Amino acid sequence: MAACGNTKNSQNETTTAEPVGPTFMADSAYLFCEQQCQFGPRTMNSEAHDRCGEWIADKFRAYGMEVALQKADLRGYDGTVLKSTNIIAAYQPELQERVLLCAHWDSRPWADNDPDEANHHKPVMAANDGASGVAVMLEVARLLASQPTPLGIGVDFVCFDAEDWGTPQWAESDGDDSNTWALGAQYWATQHSTLNTQHSPKYGILLDMVGGQGAKFYQEQMSKYYAPEIVRKVWAAAETVGYGSYFPKEDGGGITDDHLPVNQDAKIPCIDIIPYYPDCTASSFGPTWHTVSDDMQHIDRNTLQAVGQTMIQVLFSEN
Prior knowledge:
Elements: H1 26-37, H2 47-62, E1 66-75, E2 81-91, E3 98-104, H3 127-146, E4 154-160, H4 183-194, E5 204-207, H5 221-226, H6 228-240, H7 259-264, E6 270-273, H8 301-316
Parallel strand pairs: 3-4, 3-5, 5-6
Antiparallel strand pairs: 1-2, 2-4
């Protein structure tokens, strides 16, 4: 990540909007996060991965979503063939006006940023880096299904696979390894660009590591480059629902993440809600990033609440 710089809030970034929509239930999202972790690390080509994928798809179906499984054999940085499944769930698939919410659901196979080198080849539980984003989406889906009056827009929930097989720190590298990350999103975006885009989402929001303790979500630089209006919309929504302190209107870094192929290949303006810890020496993504400590003990319901209520505000403001 690039260094964090401060920017002054401009007048047009303030909001006079009122909160709308139901109350996001952080306890429910926390449970969804915990239930994913109960399968164990959801590393590619593992039984835990496949069983959890079935569970996620069934959850979306239970909330009335139309679910499609986009399967592909993708090649990892080391040549490993990854049996990948993007889980695509559509709320009101018949509607042309749509918004995309997305997150990755696979686990990092190697805790290569752990302070203990003995853990560098151990899998990551990925309570935050994977499960938290899916958990927020599942709770949003549950709330949408419970509303007496449907939203006036459709919502596409996409759980990207094979995001975290990027080249580990201990592996030999030829230099630029950016394309070894976000493999499922790359595949989805390429396929999306060749399909009928009549019902293509007008914008997207990526949720990555949205449950960590002490998290704050600075404005990611590639998001501001590709989708500045959506950045302003989301940060204003956070302020409206009382969680502006979690969403500083200051610059974070520029991230290689699932939102890049969504922007570059699918041509959907998409932002990344991702934490930035400017004073963390272990990683600017936070102290548990790619470590064996990325577990439920380090998930904060308050962080889930802040992000989830902001997503509710954004969606219900589209009505």
